[in-house]
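Replying to the earlier thread about multi-chain prediction with a worked example.

Input:
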Amino acid sequence: MGFHHHMSTDKRNIKAKKSITALPKTPTGIKGLDEITEGGLPTGRPTLLCGDAGCGKTLMSVEFIMRGATEFNEPGVFMAFEEKAEELADNVASLGFDLRKLQDEKKIRVDHVHIDRSEIEETGEYDLEGLFVRLGYAIDSIGAKRVVLDTIENLFSGLDNQAVLRAEVRRLFHFLKDKGVTAIITGERGAGRLTRQGLEEYVSDCVILLDHRIINQISTRRLRVVKYRGTVHGTNEYPFLINRNGISVLPITTLKLNTEASTERVSSGIPALDGMLGGKGFYKGSSVLVSGTAGTGKTSIAAYFAAAACERKEKCLYFAFEESPAQICRNIRSIGIDLQQYVDNGRLKFHASRPTIYGLEMHLVIMHDLIREFKPDVVVLDPITNLITIGSVSEVKSMLIRMIDFLQEQEITVMFTALSLNTIINDQTDEGISSLVDAWLLVRDIEFNGERNRGMYIMKSRGMRHSNQVREFVITDKGIDLVDVYLGPGGVLTGSAREAQQIEEKTGAALRDHAVSRKDREILRKRSVLEAKISSLQSEFESAEEELNKIYLEEELKKQITEKTREEITRRRRGNS
Amino acid sequence: MKTEHKAWELRLYVAGKTAKSITALNNLKKYCEEHLKGQYKIEVIDLLVNPQLAEGDQILAIPTLVRKVPEPIRKIIGDLSNEEKVLVGLNIIPAN
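Result:
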């Protein structure tokens, strides 16, 4: 019977392998864990969950049982080898579950295994059949599909005969498989190996390691899938968080670059800026970096962006890493925007935290959590540069990649602000981060003529025509505006220099106009003078000509008369002779 | 064993009639007859029949002998092959 059963399972497995779906999996219901394991824990098989004391393995296994009972209709047995009943109840209550109710409904069964070494004497041969009976009874009494044994290694300190214990633990793993329950067996981290008692030798399907480290006085929890038979799993360490909703593991996205790119546009909230961005604003689901030196109005730009989203009846989640929400609201009110109304109507949610409270990854996990909960359309991170105080540039970068990927997947448009100091390190930051984002706005001080003005540049904006011009960025009590800067012969002019230049231009024009009309009159005058001269010359010429003509005629006349006279004389002489 | 109350109330947990269980019960009976004649009561609980009883006395190992009375509760696990250990464990003879 068993043989035939195995045969058919094998055949099914071969078939399954062909269609790529390998081992059947049981979802844990723990946020992120099912994504990392591509579906959950191996169904009907034991998984070893190991880590140091206080790493969160008990809580994780409690959550596995609770979610199974409440969300997946899979009753569960929790066999506790170390925790006292009250502690376990507290643990469960902290996740928002009612242990007693679930026990009454026969969805959960808890068995506390208490071993008091001082009470026990050993003599002669024994086995752990009692434990098997208890476990079997607990499973059968509620039809359990899930089992947790936490922490079975305590048996080893409670009993002497290690050889018997080893054999029995091995038998226990087989027993669990025969029962067909999906089990978590926890184990404490040992020196140089995963568990003190080498439990990993008995578990061939799935081993998960939890880790709790303090780096720079900041606690960071991590999870690693050490082994998962038949499943492609990342060997990465995934950060996780324990909060009121339980455990949240942050999957490092596999950088699937297949997210659909939206052609929908989202207004920046500043019409003139939209104008620079092809007239429509940012792409929906894109990432925008606003960087600039201190006091250049990055938060103001972010606030406009947030307010515009709220005005569109969208939701905005604003992560403030520098100022408190109250401060931001007050400051932004002074430039004509009331953010508080959006907070009140639930469209805007602030989450303020000092970067140094947690590690980078914890921030990321918290952000993930809040985003999943609030489901915003638009997210603001102001400023991300403060996070660099707790991590290196490359760490921040990898965190942002993950953040951007996650947001892109959800089609959430994100705006980061970044403080750039005029130092090499921060130039690198800008460069490092700017390569990740779709659009980069740079607000820079332009110091000129004894005053400081702001210029806005669009350093890049992927996939759209955008202005390459610098605009002067003006913040008044009426709000933000972008003014066309004056491009004079001396370059870009801003502030009063721009105004002065504009005035100068106007005067110049007037003067030129004036000059032109004077010159016109001069020409007219010159012309009339010349014309007068010409006419006088002409009359002079005419009189000279007349004179010449007169002389000519007289000469002609004289000549004629002379010739006549000579002919007369000649004729007379001839007649006389 | 007609008297209700005995000075020694012993409970032996077994799981089916295994060699270890039979050895344990035989050993226990022998020691009791030798040292506690007329003052003891042995109750054998087969967990294969009554699995729900395992949790109450915190039974893990089989066989387990539990001294319910006199208090405090003592437990001896194994086939009880070492007489001296059993007697010391049950506080029948003092430890030396």
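The first helix of chain B runs from residue 19 to 35.

Feel free to reuse this layout for your own posts.
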